[in-house]
Design brief:
Blueprint (H helix, E strand, L loop, with lengths): L2 H19 L2 H5 L11 H5 L7 E5 L2 E2 L3 E2 L6 H11 L3 E5 L9 H10 L4 E4 L5 H10 L3 E5 L5 H13 L3 E6 L2 H7 L6 E5 L11 H6 L8 E5 L5 H9 L4 E4 L1 H4 L4 H27 L1
Parallel strand pairs: 1-4, 1-10, 4-5, 5-6, 6-7, 7-8, 8-9, 9-10
Antiparallel strand pairs: 2-3
Helix pairs in contact: 4-5, 4-12, 10-12
C-alpha cells in the first residue's frame, strides 16, 4: 500500500474507536457545537489579510518530526497577529502528531476561520469537527467517491461548516466538483509519492469554476510563488512546513508576510512608473 492507503486503513479503525469513546450525543453537547462558524471564504478574500492559511503540523509521514513540541497557543495567536487569513490544524495523531485538543485550544485563543486538517471519511468526523471548534473541513477527492464526497459536503454545510475540497490532478477535479463545497484546494504534493510540484496548481487553475475560492496547497517556498499563484487565480495559500521547521513558526510567518507585502508594494510601484 502507498502512504495514503495506509492512512485511510488506520483512520477507519481510529474512527470506530472514537465512536465507542465519544458518542454523537456527547459531541453535540460541546460548547462549540452551536457556535456560529467563521467563514474562511470571507477571510481569505479580505484585502487587509494575506490569503495565507497558516498550518500547525508536528510531523508528517514523509519528513518525520518537524516541530513535535510546538506551542499551539503561542503559534496560533502569532500566526493571526502576523496577518494570516486563517488557521489549519492537523488533528491526525498517528501520522501527523496532532490531536483534537490542538484545534480546540486554537479556537479558544482566536476568532478566525480554522480548518480541521484530517482524513475525513464519514459523517461522524464532521460532527466531531463541529464539536471541537472547526469552521471548515477538508474532503480529499483521492480517498472519496464523487457521491460520497458530495454527501459529506452536503452534511457539513447543513451543520454550518464550510468545505475545502482537495484535488491533485484534473481527473479528480472533474469527477468530484459539487455545488456543496466552498473552496477548491490543489495540493501540489502527490499523496502517493509525497513529491511536490507547484506547476500542478498552475495547470489546474483555469479548470476550477470561479464560483469557488481557489486555494494552493503545499510546496510554497517564497513570496514570489504567491505572486505567481495569484496571477493564476488563487486567493488562498496553505503553508505549513515552510513555517513549522523554524523554532518559532509565527515569527517565520510574520517575516514571510512582511516580505510578501514588500514585494507587492515594489511590483505595484514599478507598474506605476512604467505606466507614467
Amino acid at each position: 500500500m502507498n502512504i495514503l492507503e495506509k492512512i485511510i486503513v488506520h483512520k477507519r479503525k481510529e474512527v470506530a474507536h472514537q465512536k465507542e469513546l465519544y458518542p454523537v450525543k456527547y459531541l453535540e453537547s460541546s460548547i462549540f457545537f452551536d457556535t456560529p462558524c467563521v467563514p474562511m471564504t470571507t477571510y481569505i478574500q479580505r484585502e487587509d489579510k494575506s490569503g495565507i492559511i497558516a498550518e500547525i503540523k508536528r510531523k508528517s509521514p514523509s519528513k518525520g518530526n518537524i516541530h513535535p513540541y510546538v506551542s499551539v497557543e503561542k503559534t496560533s495567536i502569532g500566526y493571526m497577529q502576523a496577518g494570516a487569513s486563517a488557521l489549519s490544524i492537523l488533528t491526525d495523531t498517528f501520522f501527523f502528531g496532532g490531536k483534537n485538543e490542538d484545534l480546540s485550544l486554537a479556537r479558544r485563543m482566536n476568532y478566525c476561520p480554522i480548518l480541521r486538517k484530517d482524513f475525513i471519511i464519514e459523517e461522524y468526523q464532521i460532527i466531531e469537527a463541529r464539536s471541537i471548534g472547526a469552521d471548515v473541513i477538508l474532503l480529499i477527492a483521492a480517498v472519496l467517491t464523487p457521491a460520497k464526497l458530495a454527501e459529506l459536503a452536503r452534511f457539513a454545510q447543513s451543520l454550518g461548516l464550510q468545505v475545502l475540497m482537495e484535488v491533485h490532478d484534473q481527473e479528480e477535479l472533474e469527477r468530484s466538483l459539487t455545488p456543496h463545497i466552498n473552496l477548491v484546494g490543489v495540493n501540489n504534493r502527490n499523496l502517493k509519492t509525497f513529491e511536490v510540484n507547484i506547476q500542478t496548481a498552475a495547470s489546474l487553475s483555469t479548470l476550477i469554476p470561479n464560483e469557488f475560492v481557489k486555494v494552493a496547497e503545499s510546496g510554497i517556498k517564497g513570496p514570489e510563488e504567491i505572486l505567481f499563484l495569484e496571477e493564476c487565480g488563487y486567493e488562498g495559500f496553505l503553508i505549513g512546513e515552510r513555517f513549522m521547521k523554524h523554532a518559532e513558526p509565527h515569527k517565520a510567518c510574520a517575516q514571510f508576510i512582511d516580505s510578501l507585502s514588500l514585494l507587492k508594494a515594489t511590483k505595484s510601484g514599478n507598474s506605476k512608473v512604467k505606466k507614467a
